[in-house]
Fold each of these.
Amino acid sequence: MYYLEMNDVKKSFGDLEVLKGISLTVSEGEVVSIIGPSGSGKSTLLRIATLLETMDVGNLAYMGQYAVTMEDRHSVYAKTSQLKEIKKNFGLVFQSFNLFPHKSVLHNIIDAPIFVQKRKKAEVIEEAKELLRQMGLEDKADYYPCQLSGGQQQRIAIARALALKPKVLFFDEPTSALDPELTGEVLKVIKGLAEQKMTMVIVTHEMSFAKNISDRVIFMDKGVVAASGTPEEVFNSDNARMQEFLGKLKND
Amino acid sequence: MSFSVMLEQLAQGMCKSMLIFGLTLLFSMPLGLLVCFGRMSKNRLVSGIFGFFISVLRGTPLMLQLMVVYFFPYYLFGISIGNWRFPAIIVGFSINYAAYFAEIYRSGIEAIPKGQYEAAQILDYSKSQTFFKIVFPQVIKIILPAVTNEIITLVKDTSLAFSLAYMEMFTIAKQIAARDTTFVPYIVAALFYYIFNLLVAFVMRQFEKKLSYYN
Ligand SMILES: Nc1ncnc2c1ncn2[C@@H]1O[C@H](COP(=O)(O)OP(=O)(O)OP(=O)(O)O)[C@@H](O)[C@H]1O
Ligand SMILES: [Mg+2]
């Protein structure tokens, strides 16, 4: 059984066809990186996978449970109650963190497990402290997001997502909003998660990072998967668009 | 008439002004939130109707609205309006201020970045949890300066109750001034409104300080 499975996903915004039939499967413990030029539809794909955006065509399942099925060549979304159940399977880390500015670091992490999952407060706090230790931020529990650097905020956002114990964790360019000297600390945390066999789908512009930690790399271009495979296969492929993309990055 | 008798009469007026002030805030602030929800409804008809009422309430004089509310039961149903004077004032003020608060709330809600809603959605907050735990606490901080302005205006606007001959501060000051041909009650009234507003500003500054723990 796949942790995540999506088939032939299509999406248009008005006349602009952004996704032209994307399929993606992710198995337990896999780390999949999605790379590709700006505007190729990477964020849209993640937003559809995390139900922030709806697809026009295609299906989507987590742990074999279908959130979206195909009927008569159109996507049909499951009932709200079923979607609520399915949503427990994934988390998302945003490019711009989206921490709650009025809540302390601790409350950013524990409020969803307590209010949404109705778990015991003492137990959740224990786990939050462990997550903060893992992020190297055990002394920041009582800080507010505005008192932290971007890299620290993003690590808090990762802890917040992990506190809900997702099966699959998505990242949309987790380091793009950071100063170059702060990207390392966030990438290190993600690498640590990969070593713990966390199942992850990561949209990134950090090519060496993608090469290093991914089991599989997907190169998207103009709404299609132009190349996919192991990092070696994709980065060494003679796919013209892939070469052009890598060349452009080098010249930047 | 001695100064102390005059002060006593004015003090009674002050109490009534403060009663109008307090009750208006009590009713208009929550009512404004409901009006704001109506205004922001996804249903075009609902939001259109609320938008129209808000624009009428903000676009016509409060004094006129008080008259309408006061005489409305009499002209429409021929009901005697003997005991209706004070309730009419509270209803008129509350509806009018609800319209203003609704627009203030709306501006605050619209200032919350989309990412906050998306983060809440990913963390599986329900719609009402998202509003009350994520959005509204941040809205309060954003709108506090505008709310302070509105409250200061309300302190002064309570004097409009004179148009229904309600015996609040300003009505009494006018009466005494006319009867005794003296300017003193106006000075006392001015002092009262001014000091009341200094107090309001002080209290609101404390709120702002309390919410300054983040930015
Ligand atoms: N809500 C929307 N309405 C209209 N067009 C949209 C919307 N969201 C995305 N698009 C368009 O869809 C295309 C793909 O956008 P998307 O954000 O998925 O690209 P991306 O691969 O994530 O790019 P980047 O690397 O710059 O983040 C772009 O042309 C974008 O302008
Ligand atoms: Mg993007």
Amino acid sequence: MGDVITTTSATYLANLDVFSGTLQKLAATNRNLLVVTSDSRGSGKLVPFAQNYPKQLIEVGIAEQNLVGVAAGLASTGKNVFAVSPACFLTARSFEQIKTDVAYSNNPVRLVGISAGVSYGALGSTHHSLHDFAALRAVNNLTIVAPADNFESEQAIRQAAELDTPIYIRFGKKPMPLLTEANCPFELGKGRLVRQGDDLVLIATGETVYPALQAARHLDNVHGIQASVVSMHTIKPLDYELLARVAAKGSPIVTVEEHSIFGGLGEACASFLMSNGYRNPFRIMGIPDEYTVTGSQTEIMDHYGLSESGIADRALALLNNQS
Amino acid sequence: MNTNELVRKSVEYRRKILKYIVGANAGHTGGSLSCIDVLNVLYNNVLNVSPETAKSPTRDRYIQSKGHTVEALYVVLADQGFFPESDLETLCQYKSHYIGHPTKKINGVEQNTGSLGHGLSLSVGTAISAKLDDLDFRVFTLLGDGELPEGSNWEAALLASHYKLDNLCAIVDKNTLQISGPTADVCNTDPLDDKFDAFGWAVRHVDGHDFDALQAAFDALPFQAGKPSLIIAHTVKGKGVSFMENQLKWHHGVPNPAQYEQAMSELI
Ligand SMILES: Cc1ncc(C[n+]2csc(CCOP(=O)(O)OP(=O)(O)O)c2C)c(N)n1
Ligand SMILES: [Mg+2]
């Protein structure tokens, strides 16, 4: 019982920094690797990349639809293309280019949505991407990933670079503590059980895995409740095998995501569980169907309970409900 | 307002823009300072809109496509009496209605913007409606020069001349910079006048900090009957504060206390 893997105390970077650092490492040995930006190199932490590999960065200006179409064209000739733009614009503005030019035509673009979820805080709803999982889940031939920590981020980028099918990866911009030791495996499409317990299951994705893990530790320390925690970094294809395993004992399940409660991780899990006869008590935590309260990312997350204490409270309520 | 009054107003507006950006610890400083003179002339001398007529079907519309420089808009709307200026002390704070982009929750704001490349289409729709209903209000929209590569702008530009929208005036805040660098280096849109001319617009160049020139351009609208009008306002990003002018990093830089003090000492 308890943590499967211990949290290390290294200095933490934003996953976005790890993404840009990893791209530089890959570009050093791969001339075929191209980054396409839409006046987004600063927010994508790609200024050093642009300086070190000027020939491997294509700038399209503020034109996200063109960004994705151009990236698809580049990918069609065998280039290893990363299209990088704020998640909000990349997945809403360019939705049809993603659906048709990338997914349908199977041009293996690596779509990278930066400053995802409510990372942009008080800039408001135009800049939030709380729809991206929902919209993109309905598009065939697209892998969807939200890495939780620096390790998952580097692995996701490295594995994405090797894929011959399209993928969407979203990153937040705040520093993320490591959940894992470096030798803990990461595989696209396979969730990671980062803590094991029989009383409760917390399934989270992206930047919400860490507060979920903290909530699990709190429930253990204060209430003696043992929770499993899953980092479900790949939303699609969802790891049904792991889901079936953690649901097997009938413990209550709480899903957590920095996304609308509609159409994301929670509903993807619920759909599998309901269809396969699991009747675990179940709650989805995310952003409700409203334009968010104004505030920083942390204030917004706290406001909707997407925090250590908020997650612990919701889990306790679910446990109490059932007894 | 006469020219001297406009000059004084812009100093006051610039000081307030910086004050509220510092208070919020966030904001789009350079682009707010480049467009404020245009907003000053528009709201004080051109637009037929006031708090009393804010919901009137015949009011002139102003739609800010470059929504990120909302501080300029908020400061002017407060000055016009659309809401108490003290509200701006809550800018970007927890639970405030005053987010970092234009929102219709705020009295006087016509459209929710912030995603670039939306203002021109919204304005074309609004202007077509005026023609359909035989109303004589006009529609103004402010575009950033960096946002022009969004394809929607060109779709809207085509339709505006197709519908002969001479009740529409678009202003480009041509401060020649965006986030990543000079607009000419990121994705060049020059020559802008020839492009819009070819799309069927009547185009004028104006010094976007020269009040008389701005006034004369607005007074001359429409530049040609049956055509939408484009004002290319040549501006300076960060205008009015020496160390912010033409500096990329002030796109969304927030002055520290010493910089704030120096800026205020220049804005008198
Ligand atoms: C669709 C969209 N893409 C990207 C952004 C992010 N963004 C905000 S401001 C900006 C640069 C705008 O440059 P410009 O239009 O020249 O504005 P100004 O110089 O007047 O500030 C960018 C890329 C956005 N708000 N909307
Ligand atoms: Mg500009």
